[in-house]
Amino acid sequence: QVQLVESGGGLVQAGGSLRLSCAASGRSFSRYDMRWYRQAPGKERDFVAQISWGGGATPYADSVKGRFTISADNAKNTVYLQMNSLKPEDTAIYYCNAHRNPPAPSWVPSDYWGQGTQVTVSS
Please, where are the H alpha helices in the chain? Predict the structure, then answer.
């Protein structure tokens, strides 16, 4: 079982910045890659960025490259998403996701989700 708690969302004007946090806990959470997703009203939940606790590549969605930065603080068991140069189209609920890699046995969940945090960017 992995528990994820997001925080840091809010209302910001276009061009502004926000920093989202995802605190992870539970059994063997370090086995999981950490991801941020977002879901705008009426749209599908989309991938934003990914990071591993041990470091390595950090892929991003094309729509956020150069503006968003994902990072992890192992001592605090927390993943961050620094969002700069925000645009109205970034408005969405942002979700933290823990994805086990390599995949867990079929009887063990391989994905856990936080409750989401609302980000609203005004023009």
Answer: none
